């Protein structure tokens, strides 16, 4: 298993440009999510999905869109990039055991985005 | 999710046990304690989680006080590779980890040679 794969690893955008950060997992996990991490800070939740076709907002959703058409993929779209979106973005996936008991989250290696 | 409090940084000598404390005095009965770590801006890595009993796996041990208001993560024989930021997270059991983990600033553990 490759686990959680994020592409690209690095990206530089100009203000106003749009782009999609890709996230794919090959573990058949139900749950997927996107976080951003600013320098010296913990991760903050942007959007998450509890299954194909179901998404919801996290703590900092403004400026980002998501969709979940398949179990494997959960892309994050920046609609009109702004310098404030310069950050490291992490994608994560997890599953539940019987009875809804949660398990650990598996994280990708991150996408380092700079908006100039 | 309940709020957690961790010291911002700690040092530990290589080969010694590293004991990382976490306070979670407002924890609810259905909330688990999870520990993750992040090595040098890599993606966070799951370490261990527990509800009320002490837990041990190949990476660490988790000691939860009887009143569940605090816990300690123990790395039994710390190595230089254990230098990382360690996050203590409290969350309900349902929904797994990817539907919303609340990360604080964590504890920066530095293992000294």
Secondary-structure element sequence of chain A?
A: EEEEEEEEEEE
The averaged pLDDT of chain B comes out at 91
What is the first-to-last residue Cα distance of chain B?
Answer: 37 Å
Give average pLDDT of chain A, whole number: 92
Radius of gyration of chain B: 13 Å
DSSP helix count of chain A?
A: 0
What is the helix fraction of residues of chain B, given as a range?
under 10%
User: Which word captures the global form of chain A?
Assistant: globular
Give the helix/strand class of chain B: mainly beta
Inertia-based shape of chain B: globular
* Backbone CA Rg of chain A: 14 Å
Give a short overview:
Chain A is mainly β and 116 residues long. Chain A has no helices and 11 strands.
How would you describe this protein?
The complex is a heterodimer of chains A (116) and B (113). Chain A has strands at residues 4-7, 10-13, 19-25, 31-37, 43-51, 54-57, 64-66, 76-78, 87-94, 106-107, 111-115. In chain A, the strands form two sheets. In chain A, strands 2, 4, 5, 6, 9, 10 and 11 form a seven-stranded mixed beta sheet that branches. Chain A has 116 residues and is an all-beta fold. By secondary structure, chain B is mainly beta. Chain B has strands at 9-13, 18-23, 31-38, 45-50, 55-56, 61-64, 70-75, 84-92, 107-112. Chain B has a five-stranded mixed beta sheet with strand order 1-9-8-3-4, with no helix packed on it. A four-stranded antiparallel beta sheet of chain B has the order 2-7-6-5, with no helix packed on it. The termini of chain B are far apart. The mean pLDDT of chain B is 91. At the A-B interface, strand 4, strand 5, strand 9 and strand 10 of A face strand 3, strand 4 and strand 8 of B.
Which helices and strands appear, and what pairs or packs with what?
The complex is a heterodimer of chains A (116) and B (113).
Chain A lengths: L3 E4 L2 E4 L5 E7 L5 E7 L5 E9 L2 E4 L6 E3 L9 E3 L8 E8 L11 E2 L3 E5 L1
Parallel strand pairs in A: 2-11
Antiparallel strand pairs in A: 1-3, 3-8, 4-5, 4-9, 5-6, 7-8, 9-10, 9-11
Chain B lengths: L8 E5 L4 E6 L7 E8 L6 E6 L4 E2 L4 E4 L5 E6 L8 E9 L14 E6 L1
Parallel strand pairs in B: 1-9
Antiparallel strand pairs in B: 2-7, 3-4, 3-8, 5-6, 6-7, 8-9
